[in-house]
Amino acid sequence: TGIFIGGKNAILALDMLAAARQAMFPPFQISVFADPAGSFTTAAAMVAKVEKALGGGLRDRGVAVFGATGVVGFAAAVIAAAEGAKATLIGYDGAARVTTLAALAKERFKVDLGYADGSSDSLKEQAIKDVDVILAAGRAGVEIVSASLLAKAPNLKVAADVNAVPP
C-alpha cells in the first residue's frame, strides 16, 4: 500500500507529501511518493543523463535551464544546484518570474539559483556564453535554443532537451 501524489503544482505536491508523512505513526505507516506530472522523475533522469555524459558530477559547472518556469525545468534546476552546479533559470518572458522562483528555491530548498532574461536570441546568447550544460524543458514542439545559438556557446559540453515532441 502506498500514496502517490500527482497533480501539476510541485510545491503543493511537496506540501501534501510532508503532511502525509507527518500524519503517520508506527505501525501505521506506508510509502508516500510525489511526482507531479512526472516532473520529478523526468528532471532527475535528465540530470542523471547529463552527469553520465559529462563523466562526472555537476559541481562548479555552469548550467542554463530553459523552461525554468515549468515544473520539470524548475525541478531540474534545483537538483542541479543541489549537486553543486551554478544553475541559472532562464525566463522566456523576462526575468520577473524566474527571479521569484530563485527566491523560492533559496527559501524552500536551500539552493542558490541564478536567473536571467531569455526573452530574445541575443539575451539567450548572453545566458549561455559561459555554461557547460544547457537543460531545456519547454512546451512540447517549441524550439528553445536553435543550433545557431548552441554554436555560440564555446564551453558547452552537453545540451539536453526533454521535450516530448521534437521542436
Strand order, biggest sheet? 5-4-3-6-7
CATH architecture of the largest domain: 3-Layer(aba) Sandwich
Average pLDDT confidence is: 95
Structural class: alpha/beta
Q: Roughly what percent helix?
A: 40-55%
Q: What's this entry about, in short?
A:
This protein has 167 residues and is of the alpha/beta class. It has two domains: 33 residues, no CATH class; 124 residues, Rossmann fold. The protein contains six helices and seven strands; from the N terminus they run E-H-E-H-E-H-E-H-E-H-E-H-E.
Description of the structure:
The chain is of the alpha/beta class and 167 residues long. The protein folds into two domains: 2-34, no CATH class; 38-161, NAD(P)-binding Rossmann-like Domain (Rossmann fold, 3-Layer(aba) Sandwich), CATH 3.40.50.720. It is 41% helix and 19% strand. The protein contains six helices and seven strands, in the order βαβαβαβαβαβαβ. It has helices at residues 10-23, 39-54, 71-82, 96-109, 121-128, 147-150, and strands spanning 2-5, 31-34, 62-66, 86-91, 114-117, 133-136, 158-161. It has a five-stranded parallel beta sheet, sandwiched between helices. Strands 1-2 form a two-stranded parallel ribbon. α2 packs across α3. The protein is elongated, with a radius of gyration of 17 Å. The chain starts with a strand and ends in a 6-residue tail after the last strand. The mean pLDDT is 95.
